Amino acid sequence: MSTADELLLKYEGEIVPRTFLPGFIFLSYVVSCVGAALTLELLNRRTSRNGLINNIILVSAAMAMGGISIWCMHFVGNRAMSFADDVPELRIDYSSGFTALSFFLPVIVLLAAFMVIGADCEVSWYRICIAGVLAGAAICGMHYLGNTSISNYHCVYNKVYVAGAAVLSVLDNILALSIFFVLGASWRNLWWKRALSAFLLASAASGMHWVAAKGTEYRLIHLNQRTEVSQIHGILVAICLTVAAALFMAGSAIYTAWRTRRNESKAQQVILAAAIFDRSGRIMVNSDGLLPNEKITDTYIERTQGDTFSIAHPHFHWMFQVSRNWTSVSGMIDGMIKHLERLPKGIRDEKIRLIDDTGRPIDNYDTVFRELFCVAAMTLAGKMKEQLLNIGTLWDEILATGIDGLPQGPGRAVERTLEEGTYNVFSTRRQEYGRGSLMFLVRQLEHSHEEERLEAAGFRFANIHQVCEPIGSGMQIKTKGFKGKLMNMALLAKGGAVMEPGVHLGFFGVKSRVGTFGFDVAVKKGTRNLLPTMPIPLERIELWQMEILRRFDRMSVRHLSQSLDALKKLSPREVLFASQLIDALQALRAWMDDPVFDESILTSKVVQVPCRAQAGSNSAKSCAMIALCMMMPMHAGAGSPRCEFVPLNFFKVQQMVYKDSPQIAGFARYVHRELSPIVNAAPQATYQRRGRDILKWNRLNSLRRFGRLNVDSYAVVEDNSSATTKFGRKSIIRESKQSKSTIELWDNSPQDREGKSNDTLSSQAVTHQPLSLGGIMVSQEIQIDVRQVEDTGGGLSVPLKVTMIKADLSHVPLTASNMRCHRALDIISVYTVLFRGRRIAIPTTIAAVGGGVLLYSYRPRNIPGFEGPAVPPPIYGADGTFKLPRFPKVKSRDEQIAHLKKSTAEEGEYDILVIGGGATGAGVALDAVTRGLKVAVVERDDFSSGTSSKSTKLVHGGVRYLEKAVWNLDYNQYQLVKEALKERKYFLQTAPHLSSWLPIMLPLDKWWKAPYYWAGTKFYDFLAGSEGIESSYFLTRSKALDAFPMLKQTDLVGALVYYDGAHNDSRMNVSIAMTAAVYGATIVNHAEVTGLMKNDQGRLCGALVKDLIPERNGKRSEPITVKAKCIINCTGPFTDSIRKLDDQDCKEIVAPASGVHVILPGYYSPSNMGLIDPSTSDGRVIFFLPWQGNTIAGTTDEPTTISPNPLPDEKSIQWILNEVSHYLSPDISVRRGDVLAAWSGIRPLVKDPKAKNTESLVRNHLVDISSSGLVTCAGGKWTTYRQMAEDCVDAAVKEFNLPTKPFINAPRVSGTEAVDDGAILDGSCQTHNVRLIGAHGFSKTLFINLIQHFGVETEVAKHLTESYGDRAWTVAAMCKPTDLRFPARGERISRLYPFVDGEVRYAIANEYAQTAVDILARRTRLAFLNAQAALECLPKIIDIMSQELKWDRARQDREWKETVAFLQSMGLPEPMLKATRAQVEKGKLDFSSSLEYKMYSRHDKPPVAEE
Question: Which tens digits make up the pLDDT trace of 1143-1179?
């Protein structure tokens, strides 16, 4: 019996067992994802229910979803089922008919679903739900119809799985479509979110398939007789369709990238865009969310210094008027195209040459430029399938695009121009700082069928607030307030702002334009065709009213009000007119809100200006305006926020183009006279073929540029074109600051700067009224005689200007130009030869880039913190004695208090008084004193007694902040990380003995996390740049366990290691304060500010300070008055309490958050490797770091209240221990009794009213100055203390005009003459270069010198050099001899830690230590390392301090009680709090009830040996 017969006999009529092949399961999901992604890409490009293209897209989307995402996935998924060990005869066999039907059925259903969804931007939930149900039905129907096509099996279905699969499919489809269309409505082209929608849509198909497959059993009917064909034919069809879809998507991505590059290129050109608005105010965009646009030309050629293309230019005026009457040029478009085709073109790209071989503009350049505008408008109309007459009217502003940068100094005004979009004195040079120019044609649609026709053509209508950002970024419009500009366009499209009929009082203020010739006029902001006016309730001006106005001719507004009051004594009608005029005058003054208004002069000449026509009337109408005129100062800005300046000549043009203006007909005749002789000389051509060819020359250039180089030496119209003549070379030189959309062809000589403006005042007018220029300006520039059709302003300026340009250029010697042309030919020929070797250049370039990356990664670097000492170590002198460094003496605390008391004298007043001696306060003092300022610091407790001593001991940028910055696109958080990484380097440079580099491991429990965290750490390295040390790297599982043996081995797949900094925080704080004291600052701890003093003006002038130490000794303390020009509040969490001393009603700005840390024994972590857990049980980050021989773990982040010494809560301690146990080996028991110390620090976070919890607050800092002069520096973090101090001192110097100066005769902080620390102190901030005390002589081997000279223990020597730097020589010298063979010096105060008695004496004499807590917590770190060990050594500390400070018994008892209470906040167990000094000294503490006592084996008997 054959194998087939055996199988048939065994399984015929039976359920065949099956398994699933993971490879095909994954392949089926990939196929479904590709189809879903293609479907969404096509739906995203559908713009309307109508139109052939939209219908093709609709059918294609249905086929992509039904044919690929569902059908192909189904058959690939079925191949994943393996029947009875994948025997070929038992594989599924399909019938052709049902298979084909199963392909078309989902396509048809999905076609209906997508038709239901529609193509609107608005999200319709009921349509999405219906479409989701239909899509789910299509998936389910295809699945079961596909199963029907199985010919060799009978399918047995489980009803529960059938229903579950259907529900899953419908819900998943609804969710995917909802996300997709909600994102589409927001007009945010975020590819990863669209990919998420595709994954969800694919999950609907794939999830339904596998749920249904799980509930389906297969009963064998007959064997598969076509094993070979059946095995591959379905897979091949599916793969072919999937590959085709993937290729289409790749092509779409390439096309999108090309469109993006094309938009970037257009941003450097002169562009014309269409802003079309529907009846509800929505704006029309294309499928990319951009405005339809067309290039006019690559480059505008500036032929004279004042010939900048702006709204003041005659070309723009011409275009502005033409756009109001397209009929004047519509009949000449074909002739324009033919004329442009006949112009000379470049050999390489066939672009029109606007500059001839001699470097001059071509003949009729002005005409050509205007023709290019008209042809671009016609092409734009063709894109929208509109007639030229319906394309719209030109908007009254040119926007700069593709801006690179702005100049300094006076350029601030330019920056304001570009950002705010206002025209001021620099506006005429706006394009000089932009790379392109963008103009807009605006139009308002009036009928719904027009909207439908444009949507069918591939366009969409969207709300302005939705698309203003995509339009601005896609078209590289850098102007702020772009949304407002689109609103102004919509207003113009509706007909614009027009004055109402009647009589108006108007302000006509003009000024001379800075930087060029001409005048600017003040207009209403946003409506540039209207002067600031106020209506007067009159229909017209009567003759008797004109007589009254003549009485006040040339009278200023200031005197006019008084004169009008006198009219009230006359007849009733004159009184009424005077009242109306006064009311209008006062209303206009209030509207203007500018003092310059009072200087304007009334003119008796009434001006007729255009106004709104009456309903049903087609004739133009004018209204009367009584003008207040003024010639404003040249540099005056728009003092009123409601006004702006526009060129006077452009304002005049705007008065001529209102609806039904008779000037339009006169301008049309002028256009025909100008263009007809040129246009009619060329034969007519068809627009649709040749017009598009002209404007596509630049597009063809992108395909030709790789084939050959241009070998001609003339300028062509492209991005980087320049004439190789005298003028072209100047253009190249100025390229760094000149717009790429312009080329300057002018010699910077005085002749070029003579009267080139066409908006200057006529000499006749000036002579006629020499004392009233404002009135003359009204009569000459504003009044428009509507009866004079022939007078078209601007018409004569064009040929006159061309003639002047030709005359200037005729002086250029042709011989010099020809010589430069030949030289350019030679250079280009050389480049042509080199270009032929591009096949060699590409791999060479790749190799060079790769080598450069490797060289950069492994380059030799001077790692911060690893430099040699700035001064050599001490040596033996010639007389045989050891020459210790002669460090500058620090003033005693009593001397510092004496200096505080002297501040009441005039010469003793401080420049700055800093309240708070934490990191920020000490940093401010060091910054200020090194700038030559007189500084004092007072601290209520001790330096670093608060937050500054309770940190995580890291100097880091913050990997969690970087992650938030990336995912939330938060630039502020990114800046915080960048700033902190820079400051991290300064820590290691200025205090290498107190800070060091620390590798931190990030364990990975999933392989997919490796690329995510690798990218994050590499980005962290990249941001660090030159401030970094080693690059992050990946460790395999075995290497990770070797580096961190305590890790849990299960689920560990590897680890990433990155580098950050660590430091001894309170020692760093004390060193900063003592360095400031060495430089001359008055530094006093244990001195409380009890009040703030103010002068008669309510400004702060000093503070009342109370010395707290005398009270500790049982004595009375007198208040000290400290006078200071500036008071800075740097009190961390207590910031608001000082602010309330200044202003009791001030709002609180600090949001306190508690962070708990615990200290564990050193065996919990390696001594040189930290660990970070980025995903704890509640989403927070926890660090696990080696520190001072122990292990620190933390931190929590919870809202809290402010208290001096907050207690760590047991809940937080247990949470930290639980989190630690998750990633440590199960062999290591994390016990509560292992906690040697625990503390809670208060983070002074700056409040963010939008934040829901303190974890989301960024620890950025705030510098605030109150009305009374209190400077507050709050927030921030340890790493950025120096930058905070710099910003704070900068603000204080500026606010109070403090006299910074170079530091003369700076102290020799190094103790030698080898380093002059004052050389860099020039009066500016130099704290990034100022070494702290101890840094100069420190090196990694200094501890060896210390051992060899003083005979201290190795552990002690390392501790001293890493805590005091070169001051370790002094500390060791202050240690008592031991009378032992070794160590010769240094009696440990705790047998567990390397702290010695000399540190206590040094802290008292040189670091102002005044209490036992100062020693245990801030000078040594014993209280933070082991609270019980601190209690055990407390008697010895008190004894040494009593000897040095002469304490009596009462003071010693007080110190004992206060220190034990403090140790409670450091985690001292409850039973130890009742211990007496006698018990501790005699070693009779009762540990029997402590956790530590019970967790060790103390009484077990030794194991019995086996017999």
Answer: 888 888 888 888 899 999 999 999 889 999 887 777 6
Residue of higher predicted confidence among 934 and 540: 934
Question: Is the alpha carbon torsion for 1387, 1391, 1396, 1400 positive or negative?
Answer: negative
Tell whether the model's pLDDT for residue 1462 goes beyond 60: yes
Would you tell me how many other CB atoms lie within 10 Å of the CB of residue 1254? 19
Q: Residue 611's closest CA among 664, 533, 545?
A: 533
Structure tokens at 109: 């259903």
Name residue 187's amino acid: W
Is the pLDDT at 410 greater than 70? The verdict is no
pLDDT tier for residue 1412 given thresholds of 50, 70 and 90: very high
For the chain, percent of residues with pLDDT exceeding 90: 23
Q: Which residues 6+ apart lie within 8 Å of 976 measured at CB?
A: 958, 961, 965, 1258, 1259, 1260, 1280
Does 129 have pLDDT greater than 70?
yes
Backbone angles phi, psi at 825, to 5 degrees: -60, -40
SS3 category, 1271? strand
- Mean pLDDT over residues 922-939, rounded? 95
Map residue 1026 onto helix, strand or coil.
Answer: helix
Q: 3-state DSSP call for residue 970?
A: coil
What the block records as the tokens of 387 is: 């007639």
930 with 1072: CB under 8 angstroms? no
Write out the DSSP string of 1192-1258.
Answer: EEE---EE----SSPPPPHHHHHHHHHHHHHHB-TTS---GGG--EEEEEEEEEEP-TT-SSGGG--
User: Average pLDDT for residues 1287-1316, to the nearest whole number?
Assistant: 89
Q: Residue 695 burial (CB < 10 Å; 0-12/13-18/19+)? A: buried
Give the residue among 944, 1232, 984, 1228 at the shortest CA–CA distance from 1065: 944
Buried b (16+ CB within 10 A) or exposed e, 678-687: bbeebeebeb
The Cα 369–Cα 365 span in angstroms is 6
> What is the rounded CA–CA span in Å between residue 843 and residue 931?
55
pLDDT of residue 1282: 93
User: Tokens 């007080």 label which residue?
Assistant: 1454
Highest mean pLDDT among 168-177, 547-556, 728-737, 1284-1293: 1284-1293
Q: Which helix (H) or strand (E) holds 1054?
A: strand 1054-1063
Mean pLDDT of 1126-1140: 93
Q: Residue 184: CB partners within 8 Å, gap ≥ 6? A: 44, 121
Lowest-pLDDT range of 675-684, 1029-1038, 1399-1408: 675-684
What's the CA gap between 467 and 605, in Å, rounded?
Answer: 47
**Token digits for 887?**
């460090």
Q: Is 880 left (phi over 0), alpha (psi -120 to 50) or beta?
A: left
Map tokens 């003024």 to a residue. 630
Strand duo 643-647 + 621-631: pairing: unpaired
On the 0-12 / 13-18 / 19+ scale of CB atoms within 10 A, 273 is buried
Taking residue 353's Cβ as centre, other Cβ atoms within 10 Å add up to 18
Q: How far apart are CA 1318 and CA 1303, in angstroms?
A: 6
Strand bridging mode 153-157 / 1082-1084 = unpaired
- Residue 568, φ and ψ in degrees, nearest 5: -70, -10
Residues 6+ apart with CB under 8 A from 682: 335, 338, 339, 341, 342
For 493-539, what is the HEC assignment?
HCCCCCCCCCEEEEEEEEEECCCCCCEEEEEECCECCCCCEEEECCC
* pLDDT tens sequence across 1484-1507: 776 666 666 666 655 555 665 554
Helix axes 557-566, 572-592, angle to 10 degrees: 150
User: Are the beta carbons of 164 and 211 closer than 8 angstroms?
Assistant: yes
